[in-house]
Structures are given as structure tokens and as C-alpha cells.
Design goal:
The structure holds two protein chains of two kinds. Chain A is mainly alpha-helical. Chain A is about 70% helix and about 5% strand. Chain A has a two-stranded antiparallel ribbon with strand order 1-2. Chain A has a two-stranded antiparallel ribbon with strand order 3-4. In chain A, helix 1 packs antiparallel against helix 11 and helix 12 packs across helix 13. The model of chain A has no long low-confidence stretch (mean pLDDT about 90). Helix content of chain B is about 35%, strand content about 20%. Chain B is built from 13 helices and 17 strands. In chain B, helix 9 links the parallel strand 11 and strand 12. Chain B is globular and about 70 Å long. Classes of the chains: A mainly alpha, B alpha/beta.
């Protein structure tokens, strides 16, 4: 039982990243009709916003300590971060310690801007082109972004640890009546899940309860009619592209402490996120979220020893297997609407 | 009217023969006029450095390339000479190889076997490379070694740790200076027993490919010989990025040691995940839970950051060693590049010098001469202590390092501390050891 609960938690955690990325993908597809293969790169750029902020906070000046030597036997150059010199060692250290949560604030404007520039600068020109062209250009863009990040940050993963207070794990089991040590779970993974739920809730509320959201939903349903009513729907869709980029970016910022960011982390998620969108139903926001969590949990269970010994290799194919089954039984996906991607 | 000369079967036969002839790569035919493949005729000789310049191991590849460039400088008599001053063989004079200036070309393996073969092939066919060196993966090493054997050039492997490279996939034209998975097990086991006791229950997470399997096999064998029990061995897909669903079952498996047979990004992520799940704070079977990473590298240690503190593993070499060869190499490398070299850089540097030295001693670039000069060659002064290139399998036998993630690093480079230098006798095995069986060295191919 405890093992099952652990895998459900793991699955929800993985599913959080899938759901957040797939949500953004669906938003873009639903509004602009563009299949955005650069969406994984946006997730990666988000993670590197956290890396950048951490590096900015850690910018240091050198002093030479004659009492110590470096690896070549020369006097040791001691690095002291500017923030520690300016705000005192304790405040400075805690600013560096909290760089990942602080990076949320840093990443939002950057991601909105990246999204805006990407849409206006490149993707806009591909609205009337076939989906295959859109896929090619956005995939190319993803590779370019990836290489740019690699040029500046290198190919090695970079640790972005969570704040000390949220590091480590807690004994969840004892809180819900299990034996001690039965369900130990990393705190940051719980934070990540909570964060994902909050972001998903915020996006849905925004679309559901604001006038802007209402117009966007109307535009998704019938773009032409909304346009005829004198509403500049294109501008709103551009803003939605920025929001989708920000959602992917924030998913990336918070993902850093789970697994150290590297330049190709976006590609690792890209294909899976597309499967999530297809399983959820093209253009369906709740479908993307549901499928994200569902596939995350299934993937987790498929990785257990029991599953891999019963059906070897199941951990590697489960997502695609489920996708095939879902598409056979419900060709429009779990919550797909009629008419989307069917013309 | 019958046409006896053309039959359906005859056409098919001659078509097949012609097809085979056309399909034969030029690699087999181009060198027929020379005494051996890419015999250098001018005033220079070209070496081919095949390292991952893109992809997940690009950092490691770049470090290898820096070391290879340094080796070329030293061979040509530039810089401070590095290990030429400490190498026990004095055949190299700093005037190139056999008086020919050393030049090099580079290829990008991308850590993909097909890409690595393609870049090696191009360096051999287009650039006339007489030797291929480098790489950061056993899959790549085995593929390129096979190609070099067919092409008639020497392959001086870079970082490759699977037993198979000098086991079932060994080739006469291929040589490995780096240690292997068996040696990791043999070196680690006594240290593990001393630090963790003889009654331990181990859980293995293993990268699901050739290197992972041989490492798991080696570590399981050596720890079980100590009295440890293996609770479970779980294969994880190489493409995995999040290991939480593999780590979670470890918690309640009854194991008290986790062995991560992972390398590179896999290792950084699986170790990070294991630490997140609080494994190192856990007490299991009345003992403190421990994690072992049998194969360490400095770049992985840097990627894993704080998480490696106290975690044991093994290495081929470390810049903190205090022998003369290491000091000379670290000084040259450090002064030129501003950082200490990694163990993959060191193995490439040593391999380039070893090749050049063998050519000098043989008096020819002919691969068969080089093979003869390297087989059974004993040397010292390159940083690993006394070393033997064993004739039977072309594997170097030398001391192995057991290292631990440094609890209190004083700078960005001393993330690992040396726990023990395991003497070569303890890691030596018979050439026909079952873990290395099944291969045949064959005979050297000069491409003539």
C-alpha cells in the first residue's frame, strides 16, 4: 500500500511537469492553431532563468589569500559573492539560497517577452502555412535555442538546489497513519506538485472569470465572429502565446531542483508532452491536464520492479501504448472536441 | 536459337559479385599501393582525435581535446614538455614522431556509435589519420575500434570502462589505457567492506546498456564475494531523466546500500534524486544507508554538486596524486588552461604519448610495428605509477583509485578525495576471466 502511494505521488509529480507543458502547448494550439515544437525549449529556458539568477546572485569578486594555495601551488584566490559583501554574509547567503523561488519573479517577464518575440518575430509568419511547416520551423527554433544555451552554459548539468528549508524529505506516512519511514517524500517534489496545481488553477480561472479570458475562449470557438465584433483577437492570442511561454518557463524554473538543468532537458519532455496533448484531446485544456497527470502516474507504476519483471520494457513504452489504446477507443482523445484538427 | 551464355542464375551471380565489389568501402582498397594505411610520406603525420564535441558528454570531450592538443604540443617540442620529462621511456625527443611534425584533425562522436564511426572514417580516409584517439563511451569505443581494425589504423581508446572493450570486443589494433568495470569492483570491494561491513544488502540501479551491464556484473560479483547480498538489480533506460520512480522502491526494499551503475547525466540525476528521497539520512537493517557510484568523473562530481559528499567510487586517475608524472601533467595543463585536468583528459594525453613512443621504438608508423611495440610494454611516469600494456588483451594494468566525495571541499576542483590507491596486483585478472571471455584479439591489420 505504501509503495502504491509512493508511486502515485511520483506520478503526480512527473505529471505536473507534463501537465504544465501540455497546457501551454494546448493553449497555443487552441488559440493560434500552431503546433509549437519549441515549447520544450521554453521549459528549458525557464530552468535556465533560475540558473542565470543563481549565477547573478553568486557573482563574486576575488581576493588573494596568501595563507592558502590553489592546485598549482599559487596563492589561493578566494571568491566572495557581491551580495554577501553588500548585505552581510547571512542575508547574502540566504538570497543565494532562495534563488530558485526568487527566479519565479525573474522568469515571468523574461518568458512573456521571449514568448512575445517568438510569436511576433517568427511564428506569426507561419499561421497560414501547413502544420508540417510549423513543426519544421519551431523544431529548428528549438535546436537553435538549445545550442545558444549550450554555448553560454556548457553541456554539463548545473545544480540549482532548493532553499535549505525546503531541501530534504519528510515522513508523509506518519501524518496519514502509516508506520514511520514507510512513505518518505522529498519536500521540493511536494512543493512542485502544489505549484503546478496553483498555476493550472490560475490559468483556468483567468480564462473562466476574466473578460479577457472570455474573449479568448470565444476566439478559440469562433475566431471570425469575434473578429467581426470589432475585437482585436490576434493581439489577445499573442498575449496568450506569452502566457503559455510563461507557464512552460515557470514549470522549468521550479523543475531545476528536482533534476539539474541541462541544455537538452526541453527535448526530453517535448515528445512526451505532445503525446499528452494528443491523449487529452487536441485543443482541450482540461484534457491536457488530466492526461498529463494520468500518464505521469502510469509511467511511474510501469517503472516499478513488479511491472518491469512482468512485462520487460514496459517502462519505456507505457505512454505510447496508452496513447495507442486511447486513440483506438476515442480517436479525438480523452476530452477532444469535434472539428479540431479534422479539416 | 539458344543463348547459353546468359542465364537468370548467371546474371544474379554476377550481379551479386559486382554489387559486393561496389559496396566494398574504399577504406579497404585505397591503401593497396602503400605499405600500410595512411603511410606518412611528407614532413608531417596526422593523428585523429575523435571526441564528443556535441551532445551530453561534450564537456568531457572538450577536456579530452585540450589534453590531446597539449600532447601534440609536447611531442612537437613546444611548451614545457609535460610528461616527456617524467616518462620512463626516453624514445621521444620533442621533435615530432620519427622526426615528422605532429598535426591533428578532430571529429565529433556525438556519443553515438554511427556518428563516431563516420567521423573516424572521414579522418582516416580524407585526412590520412594514422591513429584515432578519444571518446567517452564504451559503445562508441567498441564501434570505432572495430572500424580501425578493418581500416588498418591504431585505435587508442579514450574513456571506456566496459569490460567488453578489452574483453569480448577486443581487437589487435585497439589499446585501452583506462581501467575497466572489473577493476572498479576489485578495487572498491575491500574498501566497501572496511567502511560498511560485510553484511550489507545492495540494491543496484543500472543504465540499460552494455557498460551498465558489465559494471553491474562486476560489482555484484566482487561484493557478493565479500558476503554482501544483492537485493535487486533494476535496469533503467538510458534516456531516463527522472529516477524518482526507481528510487522510491529502494526505500522499503530491505536494502541498506544503493549502487548507482550510472554515468554522466544519468548519474547526476539519479544521485540527486536519491539524496532528495533522504536515502543517506535513512537507517536500514540497523545500519546507516550508503550510496556507491562505482565510476566517478570530475565533471560528474561537479554536476552533482553537494550531493556527492561522502559517496564512494573509483577512478582511473586524479589530479591530486603526488607522483612526478601527475605533477608534470597537472602543471602543464593547469598553466595552459587554468584548471586541473579530468581523468578522461589524462587517459587521452597518456594514450597519445604512448602511441608516439611506440612508433619511435618501432621505427615505423606501420600499425603492426606499433602493436608489437605496445604489447607487453612496461612504463612509468605518466601519472598512474608502474603500468603494463598486457599483450593478451591490450589492456593497461596499473593502480586504481578509490575516491570519495569530499565533505569539505576548499575550491571548485577538490570535490573528490582519494581514499586509497589500490595496488595493481589486486585488480589484475587472468586474460581468460569469464567476464572477458568470448573475444579474439585476432592479428594486427596494417591495411596493406
Amino acid at each position: 500500500m505504501d509503495a502504491i502511494l509512493l508511486q502515485i505521488l511520483n506520478g503526480l509529480d512527473k505529471g505536473s511537469a507534463y501537465a504544465l507543458i501540455a497546457l501551454g502547448l494546448t493553449l497555443i494550439f487552441g488559440t493560434l492553431g500552431v503546433v509549437n515544437f519549441a515549447h520544450g525549449a521554453l521549459f528549458m529556458i525557464g530552468a535556465f532563468c533560475a540558473v542565470t539568477l543563481q549565477k547573478l546572485f553568486s557573482l563574486s569578486f576575488q581576493t588573494i589569500d596568501e595563507t592558502q594555495t590553489d592546485f598549482l601551488g599559487n596563492p589561493l584566490k578566494v571568491e566572495t559573492p557581491y551580495v554577501e559583501a553588500w548585505f552581510g554574509p547571512e542575508v547574502g547567503a540566504s538570497i543565494i539560497d532562495w534563488s530558485v523561488p526568487l527566479a519565479i519573479l525573474f522568469a515571468i517577464p523574461i518568458m512573456l517577452l521571449v514568448g512575445y518575440v517568438m510569436e511576433r518575430g517568427l511564428i506569426k509568419h507561419f499561421y497560414k502555412r501547413p502544420h508540417a511547416d510549423q513543426i519544421l520551423v519551431t523544431f529548428g527554433l528549438a535546436i537553435v535555442l538549445q545550442e545558444v544555451v549550450k554555448y553560454f552554459f556548457g553541456a554539463n548539468p548545473i545544480q540549482t538546489p532548493p532553499p535549505e528549508a525546503l531541501n530534504g524529505s519528510i515522513d508523509l506516512g506518519t501524518m496519514i497513519g502509516f508506520d514511520p519511514n514507510a512513505i518518505i517524500y522529498p519536500i521540493w517534489r511536494l512543493v512542485y506538485f502544489g505549484f503546478a496545481v496553483a498555476i493550472i488553477g490560475a490559468v483556468f480561472s483567468f480564462l473562466q472569470f476574466t473578460t479577457f479570458g472570455m474573449v479568448v475562449r470565444a476566439g478559440m470557438a469562433d475566431r471570425e465572429t469575434v473578429g467581426l465584433l470589432g475585437i482585436n483577437i490576434d493581439r489577445r492570442f499573442t498575449i496568450m502565446f506569452g502566457i503559455a511561454a510563461a507557464v512552460a518557463g515557470l514549470a522549468g524554473v521550479m523543475y531545476g531542483p528536482l533534476n539539474p538543468p541541462n541544455y537538452h532537458m526541453g527535448m526530453d519532455f517535448l515528445v512526451l508532452s505532445f503525446v499528452v496533448v494528443v491523449v487529452g484531446g487536441m485543443g482541450s485544456l482540461p484534457g491536457a491536464v488530466l492526461a498529463g497527470f494520468l500518464l505521469g502516474v502510469l509511467e511511474s507504476f510501469a517503472s516499478t520492479t513488479w511491472a518491469t519483471t512482468t512485462i520487460p520494457g514496459i517502462n519505456q513504452i507505457i505512454i505510447y501504448l496508452v496513447a495507442i489504446i486511447v486513440l483506438l477507443l476515442r480517436p479525438r482523445g480523452l476530452m477532444g472536441r469535434k472539428g479540431v484538427m479534422e479539416d | 536459337m539458344t543463348n547459353k551464355s546468359v542465364t537468370r542464375r548467371g546474371v544474379l551471380k554476377s550481379g551479386a559479385v559486382a554489387g559486393t565489389g561496389l559496396a566494398l568501402p574504399t577504406i579497404f582498397t585505397a591503401s593497396s599501393a602503400a605499405a600500410y594505411t595512411n603511410e606518412p610520406t611528407g614532413s608531417s603525420v596526422t593523428l585523429g582525435f575523435n571526441v564528443p564535441q556535441t551532445g551530453p558528454y561534450a564537456e568531457e570531450g572538450n577536456d579530452e581535446l585540450l589534453a590531446q592538443q597539449l600532447a601534440v604540443e609536447h611531442l612537437n617540442g613546444e611548451g614545457d614538455g609535460g610528461c616527456l620529462n617524467t616518462f620512463t621511456s626516453k624514445a621521444l625527443k620533442g621533435n615530432g614522431i620519427l622526426g615528422k611534425k605532429v598535426e591533428f584533425v578532430t571529429g565529433d562522436t556525438q556519443t553515438k556509435s554511427d556518428a563516431a564511426r563516420a567521423s573516424a572514417k572521414s579522418m582516416i580516409e580524407k585526412d590520412g589519420a594514422v591513429m584515432i584517439n578519444g571518446g567517452s563511451s564504451s559503445g562508441v569505443a567498441v564501434a570505432v575500434q572495430g572500424l580501425c581494425q578493418e581500416a588498418g589504423v591504431i585505435f587508442m581508446a579514450g574513456l571506456t570502462h566496459a569490460n567488453d572493450t578489452t574483453g569480448k570486443d577486443k581487437k589487435a589494433n585497439g589499446f585501452r589505457h583506462f581501467f575497466n568495470a572489473y577493476m572498479s569492483g576489485a578495487a572498491l570491494a575491500p574498501v566497501l567492506a572496511a567502511e560498511m561491513g560485510k553484511e550489507r544488502r545492495a540494491y543496484h540501479l543500472t543504465a540499460d546498456y552494455n557498460w551498465g551491464w558489465t559494471q553491474e556484473e562486476s560489482i555484484v560479483a566482487s561484493t557478493e564475494a565479500l558476503g554482501w547480498e544483492t537485493v535487486n538489480t533494476v535496469k533503467t533506460p538510458l534516456a531516463s531523466t527522472d529516477f524518482s520512480s526507481y528510487i522510491a522502491p529502494v526505500l522499503n526494499s530491505g536494502a541498506d546500500v544503493l549502487v548507482l551503475n550510472h554515468y554522466g547525466g544519468n548519474m547526476v540525476n539519479s544521485l540527486t534524486n536519491a539524496i532528495q528521497f533522504g536515502l543517506l539520512d535513512k537507517v536500514a537493517n540497523g545500519k546507516d544507508f550508503k550510496i556507491v557510484v562505482p565510476l566517478y568523473s570530475e565533471l560528474m562530481a561537479a554536476g552533482a554538486g553537494e550531493n556527492i559528499k561522502g559517496v564512494l567510487g573509483s577512478m582511473n586517475w586524479n589530479w591530486q596524486l603526488q607522483d612526478e608524472g601527475t605533477k608534470a601533467f597537472v602543471k602543464s595543463f593547469g598553466e595552459k588552461y587554468g584548471k586541473p585536468p579530468s581523468n578522461s583528459a589524462q587517459t587521452c594525453y597518456a594514450q597519445v604519448l604512448l602511441y608516439a613512443d611506440a612508433v619511435e621504438r618501432a621505427g615505423t608508423f606501420n600499425p603492426c610495428g606499433v602493436v608489437e611495440a605496445l604489447e607487453g610494454f612496461e612504463f612509468d611516469g605518466l601519472g598512474n605509477g608502474k603500468t603494463l600494456y598486457r599483450a593478451e588483451d591490450h589492456q593497461c594494468f596499473k593502480d586504481v583509485l578509490v575516491v570519495r566525495g569530499n565533505e569539505n571541499p576548499t575550491n571548485a576542483y577538490d570535490t573528490l578525495e582519494i581514499v586509497e590507491v589500490t595496488p595493481v596486483e589486486q585488480v589484475t585478472y587472468a586474460p581468460d576471466h569469464p567476464m572477458f571471455a568470448g573475444g579474439d584479439l585476432g592479428s594486427c591489420n596494417s591495411g596493406a
